[in-house]
Amino acid sequence: MKTHLGRRPFTNMEIHTLFKGYIYGDHKMPREQAKHWHFWLPLISYYTGTFSDEIGQLTLDNVTKHDGHYFFDFHTNNKIKPRRIPVHPMLIEHGFLDYLHFLKQQGQQRLMFDLPAKSGRYSEKVRIWFSGEGERAGYLQKCHIPNIDLDGRKAAISSFRLNFEAQIRISSIQAGSKDAFNYLMGFKDYAQAEFENSKLLWQIIRGVRALPGSISWQRFCDRH
After folding, report:
1. Would you say residue 15 has pLDDT above 80?
2. CA distance 90 to 88
3. Are the C-beta atoms of 14 and 145 separated by less than 8 Å?
4. H-helix or E-strand containing 143?
5. At residue 60, does pLDDT exceed 60?
6. Looking at residue 210, what is its pLDDT?
7. Within 13 Å and on the Cβ side, how many CA atoms surround 68?
8. Interior CA angle at 44 toward 52 and 170, to 5°?
9. Model confidence pLDDT, tens digit, residues 109-153
10. What is the model's pTM?
11. Where are the beta strands (DSSP E) in 41-173?
12. CA angle (190, 49, 214) in 5-degree steps
């Protein structure tokens, strides 16, 4: 499988480790400045295969409901097409709807409201937090996962997109729909602006392996 800009997908063990790290546990790290986006952005990236800038731009209006299921409406730049991606049922299990209610109560519009932009992009702040910079260790290092493997391939937040791509490729083949795969990935191979069969998209997205049910936004809020 091709890597994205020299990236590699996470191994199953690394995914297990990342989502068992301190962000998803019961205790804060010393001097940790916890942000809600630390909890949600890796999860949304894993379950949707989208980039940090796309997730950082999401607003409450970008979460819609069609045929009884919730969807993210992603709008991005010319590199990748806008698309509507189902909210994986495990995101709801992890507390996503409760989080939306919290945002409305707080009068917030952006889903990642506590993620600031750096140089006009959200991805820069995410990169530093997740992968580290200079002497500053990122979440990867704190979970004892190296940035670069023995083959020289890099792991980064965008590695989740490669994991997502591999998993929905399988479920798309099983569903007999290459168009759905191209649409969900935002590839320009799918020429139309919308994919009309939202139930098929929801079926394919369920091919993404569920993370542990112990992952909980309320648990994140209750850490001490």
Report:
1. yes
2. 5
3. yes
4. none
5. yes
6. 98
7. 3
8. 105
9. 999 999 999 877 999 999 999 999 988 999 999 999 988 887 788
10. 0.94
11. 63-66, 69-74, 83-86
12. 145
Structure tokens at 186: 């935002």
Task: Give residue for tokens 């909210």.
Answer: 87
* pLDDT score for 6: 81
Length reported for the chain: 224
Q: Per-residue b/e over 50-85, b at no fewer than 16 CB within 10 Å? A: bbbbbbbbbeeebbeeeeebbbbebeeeeebbebbb
Comparing CA positions, the residue from 165, 214, 140 lying closest to residue 48 is 165
**183/193 Cα distance (integer angstroms):** 9
- pLDDT band, residue 77 (cuts 50/70/90): low
pLDDT reported for residue 73: 97
CA 25 to chain CA centroid, Å, is: 18
Beta carbons of 209 and 13 less than 8 angstroms apart: no
Number of DSSP helices (H) and strands (E) in the chain, helices first: 11, 3
Residue bearing tokens 């919308």 = 194
CA distance 177 to 4: 23
